[in-house]
Predict the 3D structure of the following.
Amino acid sequence: MTLKDHTYRIPGGKVGVLLIHGLCGSPSDMRHVANGLGRAGYTVLCPQLAGHCGSQADLKAATWQDWYASCEAGLAELRQTCDVVMVGGLSTGALLSLAISANNPDTVDGIILLAPVLWLNGWFARLFRTVCSKRLANLITFPDLHPHGIKDTRIREFIINSLFGGDSSIAGLPSTPGGAVLEHRWLADEVRRLVPAIQQPALIIHSREDDYADLNNAWYLQRTLPGLVDMVVLDDSYHIVTVDRQRDVVVERTVGFVDRLVQQFAKGRRPAKAAAPVAQASVAQAPVAKAHVSQAGRAANHAPSLQPVAA
């Protein structure tokens, strides 16, 4: 089946932002953040990942390397018109952002990680760790269950209607094939290998009440990424932070992060790049505000002792 391309583009200036949607999602998930960046004058590209916005069979046929290739194509497109490029993503898209940044240290200038998922919540996800065959994995389905990653009841109702209305270009599919979840695990394994070499400054936004991925996903990255990290913890959203109640906080913090980096670059203070490209992926305590906790820099000694759990 030939999938219709739902890639979302906003023309702007010489600073570009690549925004990557999550597993079983669509570029529509990134539109609110993309529009905020567009209003700030930035060029934005939200690519459609391979195998997405179609059927279950389309998603089953795609590998994480195919998703990665979609992102590389988006980065190359932005680089045709932009001098500075940031890469960001939601959930699985955040992992793809890390892989792209690791493998393109001289062309990616900053990273935006929205609700990154290195490991999933729940006993079933931990049990699924024993599955290593994609053929076997595709006999298992992960349904998109209530509350569907969204705390806001009005937005959740819209998403539910889209999920079960047959248009996967808006809200993705109502269930995720186990093979795609297995591909996500393989991607996460690769990203954990790459993270210690990623030098670019990063923004992490994660919800304390994330119903898919515990906050320790974000703390792990905050402690492990060697570059400067600004971390924001939301207190009134679930997993899909780009459309949930605090989506405007996500826009504000994302635009602010890009603005600050652009201002630093204009003054000649660009972040140190890795001495040599890392191996290609195999394709590749601050004041507490009502809405969030903001943490600039690594501040690893002040992070709670949260360790990764098996997923």
User: Anything to note?
Assistant: Residues 42 and 237 are 26 Å apart (CA to CA). The beta strands are 8-10, 15-20, 43-46, 84-90, 110-114, 141-143, 175-177, 202-207, 229-234, 292-295.
